[in-house]
Amino acid sequence: MTKSLVEDHVFIHDTVLVENEVEVGPGTKIWHYSHLLPGSKVGSGCVIGRNVSIGPKVSIGNNVKIQNNVSVYSGVIIEDDVFCGPSCVFTNVLNPRAFVNRKDDFKTTYLRKGCSIGANATIVCGNSIGKYALVAAGATVTKPVPDFGLVAGTPARLIGWVSKLGHTLGKDFVCPESGQKYYLKSDNQLAVLDDE
Q1: Phi-psi region of 138 (alpha: psi -120 to 50; beta: other; left: phi over 0)
Q2: Which of 71, 97, 132, 178 has its CA 20 to 30 A from that of 1?
Q3: What is the DSSP letter of 3?
Q4: What is the mean pLDDT of residues 15-44?
Q5: What is the spatial distance between Cα 36 and Cα 91, in angstroms, rounded to a whole number?
Q6: Measured in whole angstroms, how far is the alpha carbon of residue 29 from the centre of its chain?
Q7: Is the dihedral of CA 10, 1, 35, 114 positive or negative?
Q8: Which H/E stretch holds residue 185?
Q9: How many angstroms from the chain centroid is the CA of residue 108?
Q10: 3-class state of residue 7 by DSSP
Q11: Beta carbons within 10 angstroms of residue 184's beta carbon
Q12: Rounded CA gap, 9 and 167, in Å?
């Protein structure tokens, strides 16, 4: 048995726990056994998978896809069009101890527009994942990832570049699907040609 908030065009499965002061945008779907903690905001057109915990006080943009078994803790900020693969992990403190309260030590982690996090990847708090970057499955991110960066391994290392559509770019820096051209700037950052 499921329930749907038809007046807001929001679907929330009846096993989902939504606490006070939570905002959910139109067109969003939230699936089995997920939990939205107080003060959290989920944008429009999102899909929140099974057994996802969000919050408290987490901001999630529009058109975000969060797969099963992900916890998005305080300090994680997710922009529009982000994909979080199943069982990916976000930390919120650098040196956790069960017997020490470090809630005042949470580090901010940004997932910039259009980036993708692979299954079982770990994002250590305080790092930003750049726009349209791709974190490979199982990677452990311990430092910031540049826009369009492709990182893999433990610890994650930059192994290449990807286009907005998620294709690995060759030496010509042309997306094989869209034909869009990219270039490497002098600061070793990738940018879209004619996009600035």
Answers
A1: left
A2: 71
A3: E
A4: 96
A5: 18
A6: 17
A7: negative
A8: none
A9: 13
A10: helix
A11: 13
A12: 33
Torsion sign across C-alpha atoms 142, 103, 118, 169 = negative
One-letter amino acid at 68 equals: N
Q: Give me the residue label for tokens 């099974």.
A: 50
Cβ pair 60, 43 in contact under 8 A: yes
Tokens coding 29: 């779907």
Q: Decide if pLDDT at 7 tops 50.
A: no
pLDDT tens profile 159-188: 999 999 999 999 999 999 999 999 999 898
Question: What's the distance, Cα to Cα, between the start and end of the chain in Å?
Answer: 50
Query: Domains along the chain?
Result: 3-93+102-170 (2.160.10.10)
Cα-based distances in Å from 40 to 22, 47, 74, 179: 5, 15, 9, 38
Are 164 and 114 in contact by the 8 Å Cβ rule? The answer is yes
At 165, which helix (H) or strand (E)?
none
Other CB atoms within 10 Å distance of the CB of residue 128: 20
Lookup: tokens for 179: 């034909």
> Residue length, the chain?
196
Contact by Cβ (8 Å): 103, 121 = no
Distances from the Cα of 81 to the Cα of 16, 116, 192, angstroms: 23, 9, 18
**Calpha distance 89→141 (Å, rounded):** 10
Query: What is the chain's Cα-based Rg?
Result: 18
Q: What is the pLDDT of the chain when averaged over all its residues? A: 93
